[in-house]
Amino acid sequence: MMFYSSTSLSFIEKFAGNEPHFATLVKSWFIVFAAAVILCFLVGEITRNYSQTDKLWSLMPLIYGWMAIASNPSSIRLWLMVMLVTLWGLRLSYNFYRKGGYSLIPWKGEEDYRWKIMREHPLLNGRLRFGLFNFLFISFYQHLLILLFSSAFLFAAGGNSGSLSITDFIAACFMLFFIILETVADNQQIRFQKAKRGIAGEGDAYLTSLKEGFLSEGLWKYIRHPNFMAEQGIWISFYFFGVAATGMWINWTLTGPLLLVLLFQGSTKLTESISRTKYKGYERYQKRVPKFLPRLFRTGEVNDQIGVINDPDQFFRGYNQQ
Question: Is the pTM of this model over 0.90?
Answer without folding.
Answer: no
